């Protein structure tokens, strides 16, 4: 009789430990997936926002350049002045585009680093929780 009770208790404890471990692993996997999805969505939002800003900046710069060139051509009819203005405007446009592209790349790198750090932290937390649960239950 005592042997049967001991065997039943051992089986129940083993089943509980296995169930708890499986539940913890499933919860951790779900959390990791949720975090990764949130990070990917944030990265996409940032990339779209940056692309929109780049397009708006380029359009504004092009419009300003066209207006300046037209005004210079109308007001000052000298070819040398027009060429200098066009060169200055082109240089400004190129500098603006390069700065915007650098900012976009930096933002994307920062987001990727943050995502990697978050995923690593979540995985470490999950491993620690699983180890603690296994040690406590056993």
Please report the total strand number as a whole number.
0
Number of helical segments?
2
Determine the mean pLDDT.
79
Strand-pairing-aware structural class: mainly alpha
What oligomeric state is this?
Answer: single chain
- Note the run of SSEs as H and E: HH
Low-confidence stretches: none
Helix proportion range: over 70%
Beta content: under 5%
Please give the radius of gyration in angstroms. Answer: 31 Å
Please describe the biggest sheet, giving its number of strands, its sense, and whether it closes into a barrel.
none
> How far apart, in Å, are the first and last alpha carbons?
24 Å
General form: rod-shaped
Description:
96% of the residues lie in helices and 0% in strands. α1 (2-75) packs antiparallel against α2. The protein has 2 helices and no strands. The longest helix is centred in the first third of the chain and has 74 residues, at 2-75. The protein starts with a helix and ends with a helix. The chain is rod-shaped, with a radius of gyration of 31 Å. The protein is mostly helical and 138 residues long. It has helices at 2-75, 79-137. The chain has a domain at 59-138. Keywords: Membrane, Transmembrane, Transmembrane helix. The chain crosses the membrane at residues 6-34, 41-74, 80-105, 112-137.
List the helices and strands and how they pair.
Layout lengths: L1 H74 L3 H59 L1
